[in-house]
Specification:
CATH architecture: Roll
CATH class: Mainly Beta
Shape: globular
Radius of gyration: 15 Å
Structural class: alpha+beta
Number of domains: 1
């Protein structure tokens, strides 16, 4: 359990039990990558992971998405996963995030090598506005990562 957004830094991997925004009848634990939060607008940037590889295989429904595979063990992940910035990049209100903090648990953090891969994908993404990209790069720098864009 975390005490709030301030317990997470950009690049952290966390779980959210009973994630309320996922469109399934039975809520489940989701794994996320914390991308930071914009205090002025009270917005949290996050991306959830998926283990449904079939969507990303040849002829899959998401083969043209902006995604990359991240290995089990990285940042505390227990399974190989996909980070899909096209489908799973989210902006949520800090208050909403804080309301569910008892369901959120930090698992680990990305290494510099994985942050480099993440930055490459954020830079190439057509759906994330440039102002948000700049924010995320700044959050990564604030978390101690080297960011070359």
């Amino acid at each position: 359990m975390i005490n709030g957004c301030s317990d997470l830094k950009t690049g952290d991997i966390f779980t959210w039990d009973n994630y309320p925004l996922f469109d399934v009848k039975q809520k489940e634990r989701r794994w996320f990558l914390f991308l930071g939060y914009r205090a002025l607008e009270a917005i949290v940037y996050q991306v959830t992971t998926t283990t449904q590889y079939d969507h990303y295989q040849a002829n899959g429904s998401r083969t043209k998405n902006n995604f990359f595979k991240i290995n089990a063990g990285i940042g505390g992940l227990i399974q190989d996963s996909i980070i899909d910035l096209t489908t799973y990049f989210e902006r949520i209100h800090v208050k909403f995030f804080e309301d569910y903090k008892s369901d959120i648990d930090k698992k680990g953090s990305l290494s510099q090598d994985w942050v480099n891969k993440l930055v490459k994908h954020i830079k190439a993404d057509r759906h994330i506005p440039s102002v948000e990209k700049k924010d995320i790069y700044g959050y990564l720098r604030d978390a101690g990562f080297k960011v070359n864009v």
